[in-house]
Amino acid sequence: MFLVDDLLLAPVKGVLWIFREIHDAAQQELAEESESITAALSELYMKLETGQMTEAEFEVQEKKLLDRLDQLQAEEEPAEAPKKSAKRSKKRATSMVKSTTF
Q1: Sequence-distant (≥ 6) Cβ neighbours of residue 13 within 8 angstroms
Q2: Is the pLDDT of residue 85 over 50?
Q3: pLDDT tens digits for 48-66?
Q4: Do 69 and 34 contact (CB within 8 A), yes or no?
Q5: Whether the Cβ atoms of residue 10 and residue 2 lie closer than 8 Å to each other
Q6: Among 11, 50, 53, 99, which is 20 to 30 Å from 82 by CA?
Q7: What is the DSSP string of the chain?
Q8: Is 8 exposed, middle or buried (0-12, 13-18, 19+ CB in 10 A)?
Q9: Mean pLDDT throughout 62-78?
C-alpha cells in the first residue's frame, strides 16, 4: 500500500521539490543584492568623507540605493506584516551602514 502511495505521489513531490529550490535560489539572490547595496552605500560614505564626491552627488546616489534597499526589504516581509514606511531616515541608514562596515 505504501509503495503504491509513494509511486502516485512521486510527481507531486518532485514538483514541490523544484518549487522549493527555486524559492531558495530567489531568496539567496535577494540576500546577495541586499549585501551589495550595503557595500555600495559604505563606498559612497567613504567617497563623501574623502572628498571624492560632492554632497549633491552623494544624496542622489544614496537615495537610489536606499530606495532599492527598502524595496528589497519590503519584498522579504511576510504578507501579513504591516508595510513599513518607504522613507528611511538618513540617520538610521548611516548607522546601519556604519555598523555593518566597521
Answers
A1: none
A2: no
A3: 999 998 999 999 999 999 9
A4: yes
A5: no
A6: 99
A7: -HHHHHHHHHHHHHHHHHHHHHHHHHHHHHHHHHHHHHHHHHHHHHHHHHTSS-HHHHHHHHHHHHHHHHHHHHHHS-TTSPPPPS---HHHHHHHHHHHH-
A8: exposed
A9: 86
Residue 94 neighbours by CB under 8 Å, 6+ apart: 45
- 19: cell is 518549487
Q: What is the pTM of this model?
A: 0.57
Amino acid at residue number 14? G
Domain ranges of the chain: 2-101
97 Cβ contact partners less than 8 Å away, ≥ 6 residues apart: 38, 41, 42, 45
Measure the CA–CA gap between 85 and 58, rounded to whole angstroms.
Answer: 22
